[in-house]
Amino acid sequence: MYPPEIVQPMKNDLIQVGFQELTTATQVDEAIQNTPDSFLLVVNSVCGCAAGNMRPGVKKSLENGPKPAALYTVFAGFDSESTQQARKYFLPYPPSSPSIALFKDGTLVHFLERHHIEGATAAMIADNLTAAYAAYCG
């Protein structure tokens, strides 16, 4: 488990642009089961090699065009309960952090695993998500 002083700035990076933090399994279930339309669920992470571009890419993807109706986040290695619960909804994908999941009416429709994020620029991540939003949001 990472110390709060390391994790909080990375959490704030997404919270400041409208992401709702989910810290319990119940909050994850309620968000996924009760959010109509589309929503993004980001598994945030300390990992500098992937999360360092993931967060800016996610934020950039929300600047223009269609976007998910709701934004949620869990933090791997810190909010273990909520992260574990979120990953149940990502099956058949294996646990991956960071990762980005787009849901439409409670169904997973687009998923970026760590290997899609690692080595990608923030612009590449944003472009991928923007295309998914065009297909599923709005």
Q: Tell me the overall shape.
A: globular
CATH class division: Alpha Beta
CATH-defined architecture: 3-Layer(aba) Sandwich
Give, in order, the helices and strands.
HEHEHEHEEHH
Q: Using only CA atoms, what is the Rg? A: 13 Å
Strand content: 15-25%
Specify the biggest β-sheet: 5 strands, mixed
User: Can you tell me the CATH superfamily?
Assistant: Glutaredoxin
Alpha-beta classification:
alpha/beta
What fold name goes in the CATH topology slot? Glutaredoxin
> End-to-end distance, in Å?
37 Å
Approximately how much helix is present in the residues? Answer: 40-55%
Mean pLDDT: 93
- Number of domains as seen in the coordinates: 1
Number of strands: 5
- Sheet with the most strands: spatial strand order: 1-3-2-4-5
Low-confidence stretches: none
Contiguous helical run count: 6
Can you tell me about this structure?
By secondary structure, this protein is of the alpha/beta class. The protein has one domain (4-136): 3-Layer(aba) Sandwich (Glutaredoxin), CATH 3.40.30.10. 44% of the residues lie in helices and 20% in strands. It is built from six helices and five strands; from the N terminus they run αβαβαβαββαα. The protein has helices at 4-15, 25-34, 51-61, 80-88, 114-117, 122-136; strands spanning 20-21, 38-44, 70-75, 99-104, 107-112. Strands 1-3-2-4-5 form a five-stranded mixed beta sheet, with helices on both faces. α2 (25-34) runs parallel beside α4 (80-88) and α3 (51-61) crosses α6. The longest helix has 15 residues, at 122-136. The mean pLDDT is 93.
